[in-house]
Amino acid sequence: MLSRILTRLLAPDPALLPDEDARLAMTALLVRIARTDGDYAPAEIARIDRIARARYGLTEHEAQELREQAEEVETQAPDTVRFTRAIKDAVPYEERLGVVVALWEVVLADGVREAEEDALVRMVTNLLGISDRDSARARQRAQSGG
Hints:
By secondary structure, this protein is mainly α. It has a single domain (2-143), classed as Orthogonal Bundle (TerB-like), CATH 1.10.3680. It is 75% helix and 0% strand. The protein has 8 helices and no strands. Helix 2 packs antiparallel against helix 3 (42-56), helix 2 packs antiparallel against helix 5 (80-90) and helix 2 (19-35) runs parallel beside helix 6. The longest helix has 17 residues, at 19-35. 40% of the residues are buried. The model has no long low-confidence stretch (mean pLDDT 86). This is TerB family tellurite resistance protein. It comes from Lutimaribacter degradans.
């Protein structure tokens, strides 16, 4: 399954991903953001699980399983630029916008806004094709708790 999603994402002309694969790809982006500063903190892991439960209506166990699969996808995924551009082509705008809010929530989860995380979120937002205005609103939503 993990290789299938990467193959689909990196195809020359990817089709929209089925919901399950889109969830996995978007959650892998959250994992990548959380790992950026070299400290994959328990608060970040818990936030990813909480986001998965809320966004996708999952149980606690299902959210943990999704995150664990996403950790594997993130490890195997290509560089952030290629991975994010592939997601842009395969996931609808509203889903991508929702994940930008979630990215900011993960960055803010440990109470420290590291420069590396901040820079990566800004780059990913741009690569996902999210407008500057929507990106600013997404950050504000995350800072205000959703």
